[in-house]
Design goal:
The chain is built from eleven helices and ten strands. The chain is of the alpha/beta class. The strands form two sheets. Strands 3, 4, 5, 6, 7, 8, 9 and 10 form an eight-stranded mixed β-sheet that branches. A two-stranded antiparallel sheet has the order 1-2.
């Protein structure tokens, strides 16, 4: 059935004044108008081209954890505007707008629960919050997630989605790169796995830090993964890059990620990995 027929079917049963404005979503991959209910039922993956739309922490936790098993962990408090930064807007005003739009304290949230009955702590970066940019709050939340995983004796699974470091925090933002790296070493010292799932897009300082330090590197299909922009690289090396450069599939084919997995399969894949890595740790 075509989308025109579906529209007619909907309109025939719903009075015009009761028709909501958000029945359809335009796919960013193929441009097709997708019925919102179909998109939600398909885990926010386009039913026409399989493009994986960006989703936030709430849906990630819902899709991955066993039903009713998880608790969202509180995020550490940090100073909102340590540098009193202002560009076209005050930084504090940008933070307020992002918090109002997403309902989240900052761009990184953790939750603890079970996946197929196995303990896990999951951290999710939300691109909707100032482009998932990495500031002090993100660094502190990441470290808190590591500490929660160590306390629970569970693996730490991180879903990355970021434009890089948060410019409004300057050097304080860049300092989160070594801080999160040290936190990952704490996890390794405790003998616990660190699993990374790269989602669209992951770039900049995040890509240069905890996004590429996983014991297992997974990516969602067709995600844009990059340290710096395509044009910058082409202008530097003065060569035309492949069309699929900086995609999940290119990274997999060149050994930078271990696997590319569809969103509907991630829960089962992570469940198997937790079991496998847990058995290996027990044997060791």
């Amino acid at each position: 059935m075509s989308w025109i027929s579906r529209v007619r079917n909907v309109l025939s049963f719903v009075p015009r004044k009761d028709i909501p404005d958000n029945l359809w979503h335009k796919c960013k991959g193929c441009g097709t108008m997708v019925f919102i209910k179909e998109l939600e039922d398909n885990l926010h993956v386009c039913t026409h081209c399989d493009f994986h739309e960006r989703i936030g922490p709430a849906l990630r936790f819902q899709y991955l954890f066993d039903e009713g098993s998880y608790t969202v962990l509180s995020s550490p408090r940090v100073v909102d505007d340590p540098l009193k930064f202002r560009d076209s807007k005050r930084y504090v005003d940008r933070l307020k707008a992002a918090r109002t739009a997403t309902g989240e304290p900052d761009a990184f949230l953790n939750a603890s629960g079970t996946i197929h009955g196995q303990r896990a702590v999951i951290g999710v970066q939300d691109f909707a919050f100032m482009g998932g940019s990495m500031g002090q709050a993100v660094g502190e939340a990441f470290i808190a997630g590591v500490e929660a995983a160590i306390e629970a004796n569970a693996p730490y699974i991180v879903f990355t989605a970021s434009g890089g470091a948060r410019m409004q925090e300057g050097i304080l933002s860049l300092m989160q790169m070594p801080r999160t790296t040290v936190a990952i070493e704490m996890l390794h010292d405790a003998g616990l796995p660190y699993i990374v799932v790269l989602t669209d897009p992951t770039s900049g300082g995040v890509m240069a830090a905890y996004a590429m330090l996983g014991d297992v590197q997974i990516a969602e299909p067709r995600a844009t993964l990059a340290f710096t922009g395509r044009r910058v690289i082409e202008n530097t090396i003065r060569e035309k890059l492949p069309d699929d450069f900086q995609t999940s599939e290119y990274y997999r084919d060149h050994g930078l990620v271990d696997m590319v997995e569809h969103r509907k399969d991630l829960r089962d894949v992570l469940g198997r990995l937790i079991g496998l890595l847990g058995d290996t740790r027990a044997a060791a």
